[in-house]
Each structure stands twice: as C-alpha cells, then as structure tokens.
Amino acid sequence: MNIEKLVVIGQGYVGLPLAMRAVEAGFDVVGLDLDESRVKQLAAGESFVEDISAARLSRALSTGRYHLTTEYADAAGFDFCVITVPTPLRDGTPDLSYIEQAGVAVGPYVRSGCTVILESTTYPGTTEELLRGLLESASGLQSPGDFHLGYSPERIDPGNPTWRLENTPKVVSGVDAAALGRVDGFYRRIVERTVPVDSTRVAELTKLIENTFRQVNIALINELAVLSHELGIDVWQAIDAAATKPFGFMSFRPGPGVGGHCLPIDPCYLSWQVKRTLGRQFRFVELASDVNHEMPEHVVQRIMAGLNRHGRPVNKSRLLLLGLAYKKNTGDMRDSPAIDITRRLQVLGAEVRAVEPYAEPHHVPDGVAIVDLTERELRAADAVVVVTDHDGLDYDLVARTARYVFDARNRCGGDNVERL
Ligand SMILES: NC(=O)c1ccc[n+]([C@@H]2O[C@H](COP(=O)([O-])OP(=O)(O)OC[C@H]3O[C@@H](n4cnc5c(N)ncnc54)[C@H](O)[C@@H]3O)[C@@H](O)[C@H]2O)c1
Questions:
Q1: Whole-angstrom distance, CA of residue 155 vs CA of residue 127
Q2: Mind listing the pLDDT tens digit for each residue in 27-53?
C-alpha cells in the first residue's frame, strides 16, 4: 500500500500533537521546524508539550515514520502539508511573516494533486489572499485547478485531558469543493468528527469567534470581580450560584489576566481587520482587551494593600508566587500575566520567588528563584500569591502555613486568605 507523506511545518504546541496523531494514523510524517534545538530535542525523544508524553514520542520515532528536520528539501514529494507556525502581534498588528516564510519555502515542493492546509490562527482571508499567491508563484501551479488548498482552525487545549485533538470536532474548509473533499478526508483519518464549512473565510472566522467569545466573557467576569470586591460581595459564590441555572448561562472565572498564544492575541486579528476593511472599531474586543490587561496591575495593588494591612511595605518584602504559566497544568509562560505581575512587583522592590513545577528554565523571568513548595518557603514569605492554580500543589499546606495569601484563583480558604 502506498503510504501518504505529510509535512507538518512547525513542531510546537499545535504541530507536534498533529504529527503524533498522523504517525498513529499511518502517515509518513516529516516534522519540519526551523528551531534546531527543538528538532534535536524531539529527535532525542524529549517532549516539551505536556500532552505528548516522552513514551508516545518515542513510539512515533520508533515506527520510522516520523522524521524531524530543519530542511525544507525534506518536504519534497509530500501529499499533504499542514502549516502550524506562530501568528503573533507586532505593535498591535498581525504578524504574518511566519506564514509568509513557510509559504515561500514550501512552495517549490507543491506539486499537482497535493494538498496544503493552514492551521495557524489568522484573520479571514489569509488563506486565499496571502498563502495561495505565495504557493502559486513558487510552484507555478494553481489552486483550484492543480493543487488543493484549505484552512482548518486548531482547537487544541493544552493540559486538557478530556478534549484532545482526536475527540474535538475539527472545522474544515477548502478553496473549492474538491479541496474541501481532500481536507475533510485527511482530517477524518486524524479526528473522530469533522465539521465542513463553505469557505476558508468561514473557517478562519470560526476560530476568531471562539476566542473572542472567551476573551470577552473573561473580561466581563474580571470586571465584575474588581467591582464586587469594592462592593464587598463574594463574586466567586455568586458565580457558583449563577452556574446552577441549567440554561442560558455559561460559567467563566475571574483571574489575574489572560495570557498564552491565543486569547490576548487572536481577537486583535479580528478588530485589526474590521478597522482596516470597514474603518470601524470592534468595541467589545477593545474593551475586553483593556479590562484583561488591567488585571495584573489590579492584583499588584491588592497585594500591596494586603501587605500594608500586615504592616509590611512591598519594598524588600519576600513574595512567593504559585504558578507562572498562563494556564494551569502547563509550563507555557508566553504572555502570562504572572510575568507582568512579577515585573511590577520587582520594580516596587519586592523579592520574587516562584513555585512552578512545569518551568522551562530559559522562560523564567530574570531575578526569580524557582523553589519547591515547602513549609519553610511558605513561612519565609511575606505574601504567597496563587497566580496559576496547577493541580498537584498542596493548597491546604499553603492556607495552613502562609501568613498572608492572595488567591487569584479561588483555591485556598481561611482567615489569612484574600481572594481576587
Ligand atoms: N498553543 C495553542 O494552544 C493554540 C491553540 C489553537 C491555535 N493555535 C495557533 O496555532 C499556531 C501555532 O501555535 P503554537 O502554539 O503551536 O506555536 P509554537 O510557537 O509552539 O510552535 C510554532 C513552531 O513553528 C516554528 N516555526 C516558525 N516559523 C517557521 C517556519 N517558517 N518554518 C518552520 N517552522 C517554523 C517555530 O520554531 C515553533 O517551533 C498559532 O497561529 C496559534 O495561534 C495555538
């Protein structure tokens, strides 16, 4: 039987799980990444993505159908190519340079009948207005006509043991019916359920709706938390009570701000496009961004006030932060509010130490000592701050031992605990 060749461009949080699933589904997979150290690490069987165990990675490597490379020449002869490169913001503007680089570099290996799929989150129109032209000029071929092109947004939720790549429905699209058929057929081998939509623009917008919905609702509940504190009302209990309504309500929790590669960034892709194309503001997104961005400063103000009540200035205080990642049970510190909180506390003269079981040393902010969660550390801290509520930390010990706890996640209880 002819084994089909898949190239996954980008072996990060999105590309690596896809590559693993594809090897398991029988594809011959090239994991292509320009980051040499990442490629070496993966080739040695070391996974940096929590959801992909070293054992699973080693199994994939041992099939002989998972090849890691930094060379685009190894893409030659592919049947499917999926692009999972970053789409950050640069000065508030979408930075599509990674997609451009990938498109230009893989273009020469596009041949008749092959399929290219973009998964990176981006504004509606990117697949057809940007990527298509790059692939066409580099290959001399056309889509539709010669090769197939589509878009399928990634819904990966790092650290979520229930909803994984294979059992989360996957929205799929193509530039025409034939491309949709190819893209759909590919993902049917990877995931349990696909959701075909009519155009790449609809698929691109789908992802932005999902993330904008989360960002706006988190901002709503964050603002409510700030106001409820001033009103002297327990917002956490009110949310739990509201969540008993069996219809028409979805529960979101306050926190120290939003982070990661998606929530603070993706909605801005949409508001940028609305402004550029329509000359209008997407007001909800802008308001939500503002509210969420203000949360780290709110947390710092609350810690300062708390220390003050304990007769301590923040200057020269010793603070122990629990969790630096933007999300629990992951080590991903990209745009984490913990980084912002740390910097603000350090500027005020505090000594910041942190418990972060998933820490990658090169991502830890300067001047922060990573320590174990011990009674000694807890007793020595003027304030303990629950920033990211990783499971597996002993919150009872924290509440029992620490003098003063500022809990931004509602994980601790007791008289010495102040909640966001
Ligand atoms: N992480 C998530 O939870 C998540 C969820 C849904 C969607 N997304 C979207 O998926 C995309 C990828 O995100 P990620 O979290 O996997 O990013 P990541 O930074 O973990 O991985 C991207 C990888 O692409 C590599 N890369 C960059 N340019 C390259 C190029 N030209 N050729 C080859 N490799 C290149 C980088 O070295 C990196 O290893 C983004 O658009 C993101 O918004 C991410």
A1: 18
A2: 999 999 999 999 999 999 999 888 899
